[in-house]
Amino acid sequence: MADPIATGLVGVQIIMTVVTLGFTTGNSLLRFAGLFGMLYISYFQVPYIARVKNPMARGFLANAPFVLVILYIDKLLLNKWTFAANGPTSAVGGLRPVKEGQSKKDACRRVGDKSIFRRLRFGLNNTLQARFPATNWPVKNIPTFSRSRPDSIPDRTSYLRGRIIRWIAYVLILDLAGLFNNNSSNNAILFAPANIPLLSRLANVSKGEAIERVILVMAFWVFQYIGIQVVYGFFAILGIASGLWPIEAWPPMFGFIGDCYSIRQFWG
Known about the structure:
Layout: H1 4-23, H2 29-49, H3 55-78, E1 81-82, E2 87-88, H4 104-111, H5 116-127, H6 156-179, H7 184-190, H8 207-242, H9 263-267
Antiparallel strand pairs: 1-2
């Protein structure tokens, strides 16, 4: 079970990013002050990670604060996304900035927009996205919804049905995996300091140890994949079901496994 303090601190970081992104200008000093707050929360959270019993939750909560700090720096300090521009205003981060006078009518309207909901929606959308789909600044090689029809976008009902079914299946797999408690004494033997070197003692490695190591490595990748899908799917279902974002804003997290026939294809 996740520790409420560790989980709450990640929530605080998300709220800080959403509010700062939606209610400050690109050169606001509050953005720099917010960075120190994000870093302090990441440091303050470290002791509480050990309290998390579930290994998947512990891994997620250990990484989430630092990922949020990186995203904060990228969006608020380097690319300087702002609500008024509805996009990045600096080229430092590598994105093409919104030029002065571009979409002038829309920009003027947004500068004077007093809607708190619109600003929070803008902040939340850009806080939860690192690939910028459904914008003028998408990253390369975002997976498509269909391999046979790359330009197609599913309807809302089909999208939610598929997402919900997969999300439930992933959660059940993680839950079932948690029923198989690891033998701590066996792990202490298998991963003892003397057994960490592998190539130097290859002649002494038993078939059972070799198989167990391969299974553990594969399990790590599989459960990382499932864990990421659970988190991403949760926000995708919430965002689409509530009508906050269009379907194209939440494309598949990963591409098709059949395309992983080379190192370049594997890493995208």
